[in-house]
Specification:
- It is built from six helices and seven strands, in the order E-H-E-H-E-H-E-H-E-H-E-H-E.
- The chain has one domain: Rossmann fold (3-Layer(aba) Sandwich), CATH 3.40.50.720.
- Helix 3 runs parallel beside helix 4 and helix 4 runs parallel beside helix 5.
- The protein is α/β, with parallel strands linked by helices.
- A seven-stranded parallel β-sheet has the order 3-2-1-4-5-6-7, with helices on both faces.
- It is globular and about 55 Å long.
Length: 254
């Protein structure tokens, strides 16, 4: 396979803050963006992993402890980004959790936790970064939703609700900020091979491509949306799901 993180200058002069970036897809986004010339701040609650990743990626990458449910930590992360890198013009809201349970079995505590992280955490990030994004425009907000933000899944009511919410929030923010040259788009991955999805059926027989995706395949979309190449895209859904939402693949059970 070719280098999953090709080097280049597509993100020169871009400074990105990425939540949930110590491992998994977030770490992949950090690698891909740094390879294309961006300065990157990794935010996460996994301090050891985040600091190790930042050290591995070099001087252009920093780490900050960031619990996305804590607005004071968001404010601190933004201040650190400005102090170290001078500006902020890309926000990637990547942090998220998944929890399963059908209605009647999904507890209020599960609901509160998933909405706080997956949806309110995205709002917190946008709100905390807003003035800096406007000041450093053209800027880009990239919200990681899911195919569960496009269609329902049995047993994932909290996850679906949070990811549909991210989709709606994205569109409203895009409308509010277009006049400030700040774009806002959502990415909707299908199953991606990460620690969080380690228990899924990798064959994905209902999906046209018959496989799970790789983190670097998702990161290619993040680089595109962070770059000025996507300058006319805002309020849109970008889907990377191997064809899942196109319909049932040939031979899939009906």
């Amino acid at each position: 396979m070719a280098n999953p993180y090709p080097t280049g200058n597509r993100l020169q002069a871009k400074v990105a803050l990425i939540s949930g970036a110590a491992r998994g897809t977030g770490a992949s986004h950090a690698r891909a963006m740094a390879a294309q010339g961006a300065q990157v701040v990794i935010g996460d609650i996994l301090d050891a992993e985040g600091e190790a990743l930042a050290a591995d990626l070099g001087d252009a990458v920093s780490y900050v402890h960031l619990d996305v449910t804590d607005r004071a930590q968001w404010a601190r992360a933004v201040r650190m980004t400005i102090d170290r890198h001078g500006l902020l013009n890309v926000l990637v809201n990547n942090a998220g959790i998944a929890s399963a349970g059908q209605i009647g079995r999904f507890t209020p505590q599960q609901w509160d936790a998933i909405i706080a992280i997956n949806l309110t955490g995205v709002f917190n990030g946008i709100d905390a970064c807003l003035e800096e994004l406007k000041a450093a425009a053209p800027s880009s907000i990239i919200n990681i939703s899911s195919t569960a933000g496009l269609q329902g899944y049995s047993g994932l009511l909290g996850y679906c609700a949070s990811k549909f919410g991210v989709r709606g929030l994205t569109k409203s923010v895009a409308l509010d900020l277009a006049a400030h040259d700040v774009r806002c788009n959502s990415i909707h991955p299908g199953a991606i091979a990460t620690p969080m999805t380690s228990g899924i059926d990798a064959s994905q027989k209902h999906v046209a491509m018959r496989r799970v995706g790789r983190s670097d395949e998702l990161s290619s979309l993040v680089v595109f949306l962070a770059s000025d190449e996507s300058s006319f895209s805002t309020g849109a859904e970008f889907i990377a799901d191997g064809g899942e939402t196109a319909g049932l693949a040939p031979g899939a059970a009906r």
